[in-house]
Write a structure and sequence with these properties.
With 317 residues, this protein is of the alpha/beta class. It is built from 13 helices and 9 strands.
């Protein structure tokens, strides 16, 4: 009887900690999102250290075990990874909030803290009639969208494959349309939109599409990820082929010295050419695999990892 009472009390205590943590975290992120880039990142790091004692009491056992299994590491390493992942998820969250709350002048100042060694490649891409950018749910990618639109795609039509959810994210999405480009958001699974966007690309639109979505989002292909056979949506390849536009792979990596815009391969995909499509798919899956091998804690799709395992691709699709 006493053992059951203790177990119940422990669970209740953990629940109180979880609620306390979420309240403190939510309030902190909203407050920090008004600050300039370097100040909000510094404030976030301090808050993360301050909340560490609360986090230590959270029930992260199931999360730690899952990461330990996926990454083939010890439970201790899995728990450490879970903590780092939580931090980078907060980095992504605060940048979405900042996008909706900072002034246009403030956002223009924020992106000065980003850097890239691929300025010439991006200038070349921006000069194309139409182009595809394949990116990931990785790092502070919301800030990367601001950087791309403000720095390279002024006065262009930019189509972003992403669901426009309600609330703070909708507010941030609306703000992207005030950065000097005509921005449109479309659902990643809307087939009718897909065919319309092919025509838009041929007319000169820039399309930003996620290349790390689960296989249900579009046509998909299998590959090996961290020793597991998974499937990932590869609709970006078909869009590049049918839109007759180059595809650039890009990620936005968080770094304490300033976030980095990192470019992968840039390539064309021949229409009705299975060999060209297979090579393009290999480039995408290699980009995703290498990113997660080196920086796994900055990927924001770990909570949906089961979706990549549960549905394998259909070669006839």
């Amino acid at each position: 009887m006493m053992a059951a009472t203790l177990v119940g009390a422990t669970r209740a205590y953990r629940r109180v900690l979880e609620v306390t943590f979420l309240i403190l975290l939510n309030g902190s992120l909203h407050a920090f999102s008004y600050l300039p880039y370097r100040l909000r990142r510094q404030a976030l790091r301090i808050a993360f250290l301050f909340l560490a004692p609360v986090m230590a009491g959270l029930d992260l056992d199931s999360t730690s075990r899952a990461f330990a299994t996926i990454l083939a590491s010890s439970k201790r390493q899995g728990r450490k990874f879970a903590g780092r992942k939580m931090y980078y998820d907060m980095v992504a969250m605060i940048e979405w909030l900042a996008l909706g709350r900072r002034s246009i002048a403030g956002l223009a100042s924020d992106i000065q803290c980003l850097s890239s060694d691929a300025a010439e490649d991006l200038q070349w891409l921006a000069a194309q009639r139409g182009a595809i950018i394949g990116t990931m749910h990785f790092g502070p990618y919301a800030l990367g969208l601001v950087w791309l639109i403000h720095s390279h795609f002024q006065n262009r039509k930019v189509i972003i494959f992403k669901n426009a959810n309600a609330g703070e994210e909708a507010r941030a999405i609306e703000r992207l349309g005030n950065l000097g480009a005509e921005v449109e958001f479309v659902s990643p699974t809307a087939l009718l939109d897909f065919h319309r966007i092919i025509k838009e690309v041929r007319k000169g639109a820039i399309v930003i599409i996620m290349v790390d979505l689960p296989p249900a989002a579009s046509r998909s292909d299998d590959f090996d990820l961290l020793g597991r056979q998974v499937a990932v949506a590869t609709g970006a390849v078909d869009l590049a082929a049918m839109g007759r536009a180059p595809l650039m792979l890009l990620r936005v990596r968080a770094d304490r010295r300033g976030d980095r815009i990192e470019i992968g391969d840039i390539f064309d995909v021949a229409h009705h050419d299975a060999g060209s499509r297979n090579r393009a798919v290999s480039r995408i899956t290699r980009f995703v695999s290498e990113t997660l091998h080196v920086y796994p804690e900055q990927w924001h799709m770990w909570s949906r990892f089961g979706e990549y395992l549960q549905q394998q691709s259909d070669p006839a699709s």
